[in-house]
Amino acid sequence: MRTILRVIMIIAFIAVLSYIGITVYGNFFNSGSDVNVQMPSGSQARYSLVVKNTATVILTNDYEEFGDEVGNRTYLLHGYWELVGSEFRYYDSDIVLSEQIFGEIVLKRR
User: Fold this and answer.
1) How far apart (Å, rounded) are the C-alpha atoms in residues 45 and 9?
2) Which of 2, 12, 97, 99 has its CB 3.0 to 4.6 Å from that of 75, i.e. a possible disulfide?
3) What's the whole-model pTM score?
4) Are residues 51 and 105 in the same domain?
5) In a domain, 6, yes or no
6) Do 25 and 61 have their domain in common?
7) For residue 29, what pLDDT is reported?
């Protein structure tokens, strides 16, 4: 019985040391903080839309807004930039963003 208890204690000790080692490696040596996101120029995307619930940023140069009341507005974007990984990717299609689905959307001129 003592042998089984010792084996379990050794396995638990190795698991704790492995967890600490992986945590230190991930946080200090492989943090990936050197990634720079390049945004499209202001002439390519004059407007930014931020979905407050998810902090999603979408950029566009051409949009239509339907409705005036916060929570009931709908945006139709004609061509847009979306952050995919560490770069903004352009989509040459229309997308509809409704505040009734996504929550409050903040539109700003860049």
Assistant:
1) 59
2) 97
3) 0.66
4) yes
5) yes
6) no
7) 73
Same structural domain, 52 and 99 = yes
Instruction: Give the chain's domain count.
Output: 2
Claim to verify: residue 11 and residue 65 sit in the same structural domain:
no
Q: Tell me, letter by letter, the H, E, C secondary structure of the chain.
A: CHHHHHHHHHHHHHHHHHHHHHHHHHHHHCCCCCCCCCCCCCCCCCEEEEECCCCEEEEECCEEEECCCCCCCEEEEEEEEEEECCEEEEEEEEEEEEHHHHCCEEEEEC
Are the C-beta atoms of residues 49 and 106 closer than 8 Å to each other? yes
Phi, psi (deg, nearest 5) at residue 3: -65, -40
pLDDT at 61 over 70: yes
